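call fold(seq) -> tokens
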Amino acid sequence: MIRSVCRKGLTLGVLLFTFLPGTFSAAEADRRQSLFTYQRENTESEWDEEHRPIITARSQLTEIAGEGWDDLKEVLEKRNDAIYDRVLEEYQENLESARERHSDIPEMTFSIVSEDEVTRADDRILSIGRTDYRFLGGAHGLSILTGSTYDSETGQELLLPDLTEDETALTEALMGKLALQAEEAAFFDEWRDTAALMIQNAYGREAEGDVRVDFTVDRSGVNFIFDPYDLAPYSSGMISVRLSFAEFPDLFIDWIETEETDRFEKISLWEGNGFLPEEKYGDGISLETIQNTKEATAVTTVKAGEKSIQIDSEYGPLKAWYLQTSRGDFLYMDFLWDNDYRNLRVLRLDGEELTLSEEVPLSLQNSSIFNVEDFILSERIYVLGTYTGLIRCHMDENGLPVREGVDQIAMPWGSRMDLTLKADLTAKSPEGTEVFLPAGTRLKPEATDGESFMDLSTAEGSLVRLSLASARESKGWGFTVNGIDEQDLFEFLPYAG
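ret:
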């Protein structure tokens, strides 16, 4: 058997995001409290001798990037550790059973997944929907969606009484919306009693059992979640009810509402296919991908009402965001190419025809967009190893992302690892003073501009800067540090193809 572990790290994702002193200009000072999020991914799996998966366990959980938000970071760290430990415990509990079932049915793979989706992140609220999916050998898997919403400043988790004190009005609004769905779906006969109890329990009055309605908050409303079997059979799927601030202007407290009119919505994709209802574009916005696996080519047809366009790629889009802004309406799409290389295409939707941008060497990977004036994208960097860099951006008048004049923020590609010196080295502190680093010193990459420097942290937590020079002329690739070739300076550099 082949066993793989990637703990407290990423599988081509983001691990750390640090804004360094002097990074921002004076004009950017009022934006220093932007709340950026990313997902840290932990995986553990086992394969058979023919490299078929026996069991996989994965958690993709939300962390805060950048300085500040210390109380919120502490709360999320405890939450994420608890979820990760639970996933790992389930993995261990089901490992032997997975092996037995796999020996009988080689195509069967046990799956344990906990995955976050951020629905709002700003200076008031961080709201996260988490999908827990389990397939442990039964007739089908089961997905459960839960919500966690926090005060961004204090880290306190917000419950329903923090959003609205009018339990009666909320219950009436939810029941009215549910009744409309019940006419078309096969709700249980007792769904009204169950829904009322779930709302009551969400207000902290545990009258019977511990079942409660979950919710997430976005920029324009609150989404209430009822999992399979709560109100209806599995075949009816997950039941959700949306109460928008516009439709119910007096229901929720003013503090959680926003006055901004821009709309940002992620389109869920499955194998390059997805759909977003949008009245502005008739039947909505759709993506349909036809994949030719033998030729490693794909054609994606995007439709917005009566307008359509075809986009050629190797594997189709992995991620898509609909951005309705004062600059226009745009679709940001992340396309996967060979060797896990990604690039961004921007499609303008509100013209007479759909118009597609050239490839942008940035990625939506692990990014969420909630403010066109300030958001992060990522790219792959090759400096003392292969890294994923987070780039702070804003949208220009044509809808394209523009890099800010800040340092690229880097983190190792794959699981996080230290770089170990095999020769003495003199670096500099953030204040510019020289720092002697003896051979054997372990350093964690933190940030780089991709060309002239990399900042690394020591085991004691202090930051040092290495000055870099390109070695392309001498050997075609790589860097030197203080005139020393990087390969002669470090024991191992995590370069990927």
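Residues 58 and 113 are 5 Å apart (CA to CA).
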